[in-house]
Write a structure and sequence with these properties.
It is a single chain. By secondary structure, the chain is mostly helical. It has one domain (about 5-240). The protein is about 80% helix and about 0% strand. The protein has helices at about 5-20, 20-30, 30-40, 45-80, 80-85, 90-120, 130-150, 160-175, 185-195, 195-210, 215-240. The radius of gyration is 18 Å and the shape is globular.
Length: about 240
């Protein structure tokens, strides 16, 4: 991998996004809008908002970054841009790392806005540091980016890329412990939940809600989420194809 090529790829992606305000709005504003709606759906029960708001603060950015990253990468391949780039002295790792860096910068902005809105405008009550909450939200957004880049290799059209969301995201959403405690699930489902990264993202948010400082469980959870993001990016580089068949 080359640092200069990775940075050049990231700069190109950011330049393209600058001319695509709809994608920017999807990545940056939609999680904030979802949190805003969630707060007033539970307007009569602040306790309910506090109990699930932190978890969804991480889940909403993950979903939006998954969608945008998967569709943007697929569009590069179907338009022939990816084939031209890989014909140059640029490795797959350079390309994936460049995309991850570009979307990662967007994820920073997204996480800052969503966390700030939840804590200081919507009154989300957490015991832990806002910086810990921001860290988990950012890692979730990066994980969504990594998953989107990975699944784009298996989609032949943007329609198929969108269809991967119920296949990849929804099972994690149902099994992550948001709706029912993981230890109360059937043993098979609990075992599946234990290998899904979103489960550890939700667990990390729960630790921030309960404890003022980073605990050992919190550290373990965020390291698992980060490791999953890196692993999925590596798999994305290994499975990246020049063109869509």
């Amino acid at each position: 991998m080359s640092t200069s090529r990775t940075l050049a790829t990231a700069a190109r992606v950011l330049h393209q996004l600058r001319h695509d305000p709809r994608s920017i709005a999807l990545m940056v504003l939609v999680p904030c809008l979802m949190l805003f709606l969630l707060r007033y759906v539970f307007d009569g029960s602040e306790q309910t908002f506090d109990s699930i708001g932190a978890s969804l603060l991480g889940i909403f950015p993950l979903i939006t970054m998954f969608l945008v990253a998967s569709i943007a990468t697929l569009r590069e391949r179907t338009s022939g841009t990816l084939e031209r780039l890989l014909a140059m002295p640029m490795g797959k790792g350079d390309l994936i790392a460049g995309y991850a860096l570009a979307f990662g910068l967007i994820a920073v902005v997204q996480s800052l806005l969503a966390t700030g809105l939840a804590l200081w405008a919507l009154g989300l009550d957490v015991i832990g540091s806002p910086w810990l909450l921001l860290l988990v939200a950012l890692l979730d957004a990066l994980l969504g980016t990594a998953l989107g880049l990975f699944v784009s290799a298996f989609a032949a059209s943007e329609f198929q890329a969108v269809q991967f969301m119920p296949a990849v995201i929804f099972p994690q959403l149902l099994l992550c412990g948001l709706f029912t405690a993981r230890e109360q699930m059937q043993p098979v489902l609990e075992g599946i939940s234990n290998v899904l990264p979103m489960s550890y993202a939700v667990d990390a948010m729960a630790e921030v809600q309960r404890y003022p400082d980073a605990t050992g469980d919190f550290t373990r959870d965020v390291l698992i989420v980060a490791a999953c993001a890196v692993l999925v990016l590596a798999l994305g580089a290994a499975t990246l194809r020049r063109r869509t068949a």
